[in-house]
Amino acid sequence: MLPAPKNFAYHFNPMTCMSFTIPVKIRIRLVIHNLRGQEIAEPLNQELLPGKHQVTFNTAALPTALYFYRLETGSNLMTRKMMLIK
């Protein structure tokens, strides 16, 4: 039987990455909402050039929960679920 570790630490990476591709230059707004529909963060709100983009979002201050992220591009909206487990 192996001895129990003397020092044990769990290192949580509080960053999450979201990727998307756009075909034309357009203003993109990425918003994070909680289950109550409250906007809790806006990691991106700017005009971007065509191509693949990645947004890094720090979740360290958020509790474990289900969140929704919404990508807005002019008149188009895309909403997806994000489960944060710490």
| Radius of gyration from CA coordinates | 17 Å
Shape: globular
The CATH class is Mainly Beta
What is the structural class? mainly beta
CATH topology (fold) name: Immunoglobulin-like
Strand order across the biggest sheet?
3-2-5-6
Count of helical stretches: 0
Helical residue percent band: under 10%
Strand content: over 45%
Following the backbone from N to C, one meets helices and strands in this order, namely EEEEEE
Weakly predicted, low-confidence segments = none
Annotated CATH architecture: Sandwich
Instruction: State the domain count.
Output: 1
Count every beta strand, where a strand is a DSSP E run of 2 or more residues: 6
Cα-to-Cα separation, first versus last residue: 30 Å
Mean pLDDT: 86
Largest sheet: 4 strands, antiparallel
Brief description of this entry?
The chain is mostly beta strands. 0% of the residues lie in helices and 60% in strands.
Attribute tags:
Immunoglobulin-like, two-stranded antiparallel sheet, 0% helix, globular, mainly beta, 86 residues
Structure, explained:
With 86 residues, the protein is mainly β. It is 0% helix and 60% strand. It has a single domain, classed as Sandwich (Immunoglobulin-like), CATH 2.60.40.3080. The strands form 2 sheets. It has a 4-stranded antiparallel beta sheet, with no helix packed on it. Strand 2 and strand 3 (39-48) form a beta hairpin. It is globular, with a radius of gyration of 17 Å. It starts with 14 loop residues before the first strand and ends with a strand. The mean pLDDT is 86.
